[in-house]
Amino acid sequence: MTTATDVRNTIFRIWAEVLGVEPDACDDFFLAGGHSLLAIQMIAELENTLGVELTVRDVLDNPEIDGFCAFVMERAQRQEVRGEGSEQAM
After folding, report:
1. What 8-state DSSP symbol labels residue 37?
2. Would you give per-residue pLDDT tens digits along the chain (90 residues)?
3. pTM for the full model?
């Protein structure tokens, strides 16, 4: 099981890679220079790394990094309970 700290660290790392800036806890993806194409890039990397299904709508609804981290962790837990997302493509 992935811990909340692992999820947060992964999101912070990928956010920084995609936007080219280190995020603060209250950073807003779009105010930090993000746009829909970068959101898609971030989502793809998060799905590959964490195995969590996400959409651009999820980023739009949760643009601040702390809220997005909480959302992703909740989504990961729900998928785990349903038995989804636990198998990565080989």
Report:
1. H
2. 578 899 999 999 999 999 999 888 779 999 999 999 999 999 999 999 999 999 999 999 999 999 999 999 999 888 877 776 544 443
3. 0.83
